Task: structure prediction
Amino acid sequence: MAATDRLLSRFSRSRAVLAADALAAALSWPLALGLASPAGLAGRSWGETALEAWAFAALCAVAFLAARIPRVSWRYLGLGDLLRVIGTASLCAVLFGLVLGGVGHLAGFTPLLPVIHALVVSALLLGARGAWRAAADRHGDGEGATPVLLAGGGDGADLFLRAIAREAAPRYRVVGLVTDDPQQSGRLMHGVRVEGTVDDIAHALRKLARKGKSPKQIVVTGREIAGERLERLLDVAEAAGVSVAVMPRLTDLRPAARGEPARIELKPVAIEDLLDRPQRPLDREAMARLIQGRRVLVTGAGGTIGAELSRQIAALGPAELVLAENSEFALYAIDLELAETAPEVPRVAVIADIRDRERILALFARHRPELVFHAAALKHVPIVEANPGEGILTNALGTRIVADAARLYGAVAMVLISTDKAVNPTSVMGATKRLAEMYCQALDLKARADGQGTRFVTVRFGNVLGSTGSVVPLFRRQLERGGPLTVTHPDMQRYFMTVQEAVGLVLAATVVRVKDEAIPESARQGGIFVLDMGKPVKIVDLARRMIRLAGLRPEIDVEIRYTGLRPGEKLHEELFHGRERLIELGLPGLLMAAPRTVDLAIVARAIDEAATAARAGREAAALSVLAALVPEFAREGGEAVERTAPGG
Result:
């Protein structure tokens, strides 16, 4: 019933538009005659002119129906629609003039009459539409709209202004703009004045206050306003008692209703905006060539990194995507998401423990993956520290099992997701990930030496924002409870990166390794890719930023409490070991650590011995084998681990 009502309403609107256009067309004829020759119009009978006017209106009505002009929304009129109205009306005017001139009805009038008529009828039609749109815009610019100041100018501000102009009842009223260009000051954009520059937004707020046009909110429309600039803007807004919001990216816009334009839904400032991670230009075409038509396996597919790998890989068109995960719920969640977002991609959801050799071999035998992305791991430092045997069995032995299967079944490449905690590790988690790195490096050396076989790609990076068990979700939960926010040490620093950027760079590194291009010869065997993480961030600064983003004051509204370093934690993480030479690849976001390698047989024997000891519950023996292979490993900030050489 509702659908029928909408159809009738749309039909009624179309008839009203057609009637208005026909009336405008009828009026255009005597106006055109008068402009062409006032004396000629005076000498004609009004009955004759009226009959011709209605004949022209009928012609236009038929032509407009054929061109579907009555269905064009006046509020959302675009350039193409305008040209269609002008073209149809002008064609009707010219044809009408030629016909009447041919039968002698226009004697005494200038031959330019059809041109004059075309201009008049176009002006009437467009004038009616412009007047209606202006009236609608004035009607929607009521007192209920929130006054806002746009920060950023450019395309973002243009999009925002156009979007609210199209709303029947705008929720926002733009009172001013600030841009990056001082020369824009005083100019107008869609009738809104540029009040100054982003970096002097306090002055712009004072000017607007003097005019009685103080905004209640600052809307950031420019992506160039991030990091420290955004933090300074937040300081100014906080002092002025003004909130700050961010306009979503164009790809994040959602239609308000069927047939309606996208609505602007402002977002609060996110912690990612303050970290100011630059956008890396990635070769998506090369990634697509790598993935398209290939069978791909992702281990740990339900985790933060594994799930994002699955999303981005699914978007690149694999022949089959195998999702391997030990957690039933995590596997269900990512499988359901991909069923909705990429239903065309053949996928298989597999519950599998990477420590179960027979299960992994059966998985590889059945699906024969050509590309393997190994994201499964135990990553929470204190938990692995309390359960070191499990860390060895998952991070070291599990990686070996997956790597051996990839090699046995002829995968093109296997990608190991590593961590900055593998550099000079003070935790079992870091040391086990370093052992996994060493095993994959050794396998890659062998493949390179043999001139064939699976290539092994190791990618090392720091913390991923918002990942499971990371500090950002912890701070959010603590804020919801009113604090305090707990920080282990005032000098604690970490590298941070968004998961989307990290996974994009992992795929880029895989392309580079498989093609073996842009890599110096000295690093083509076993070199570790290291993601450019930018500058490290103090955790206490992160806590303060998140408190302020919640509209609260650090140490006044919400306490920050220091709890002391936890077992296995370091104050500062590193991306390179002292003996790993940094290699510049000239690729955005990608660096490389020259290999520090160990003989494959030695690493394999060490993993087997450590795993055997871990299964038997002999944690000290397992850790001593681990320490023998990773000599820089010292637990709890310097506590040495007794070392036993593999096989000794």
Residues 2-138 form one domain. The CA atoms of residues 443 and 600 lie 7 Å apart. Confidence is low (pLDDT under 50) at residues 1-11, 251-259. The radius of gyration is 34 Å.
